[in-house]
Amino acid sequence: xxxxxxxxxxxxxxxxxxxxxxxxxxxxxxxxxxxxxxxxxxxxxxxxxxxxxxxxxxxxxxxxxxxxxxxxxxxxxxxxxxxxxxxxxxxxxxxxxxxxxxxxxxxxxxxxxxxxxxxxxxxxxxxxxxxxxxxxxxxxxxxxxxxxxxxxxxxxxxxxxxxxxxxxxxxxxxxxxxxxxxxxxxxxxxxxxxxx
Length: 196
Fold this sequence. Notes:
33% of the residues lie in helices and 30% in strands. The chain has 196 residues and is of the alpha/beta class. It has one domain: 3-Layer(aba) Sandwich (Rossmann fold), CATH 3.40.50.10610.
């Protein structure tokens, strides 16, 4: 009886360990500033604060949500964002703006400017669409509050970036480029406002 019990225990351990070996593992991704961006030649003393970003509830989750045929979407259980998407988008835009504006004073937090005026930027992501192997789309409304003007500058950017490959890395890189387009239009509006 003891040998039979040991055999059963060994068989159960083999089945459970075999099941663990075949379980899929999660991959984690983050957005990052677009490496192709270059400075627009503004003063390095410009202070900019990127406020918290809003995103659609559909994509406000750890899983990367991909669009399928028709109106179907699918949250990919094993393809995940490494951090909350809202904060990652906010920091990515701040990083893009730092490069574009040539400023070391772009932040996602309120800064103590010691009396130096700061530009404030708000971005509302209306659409964050991911089609694996095809297209990344970002539709963003943005508002800039110049430090010396009462009226804000309002704009909208619709960016479509082709996905260069079938992997999730390529999809995330396309979103990096799409956010770079959003940041470029914000930076352009800041530069134009400075020269008025």
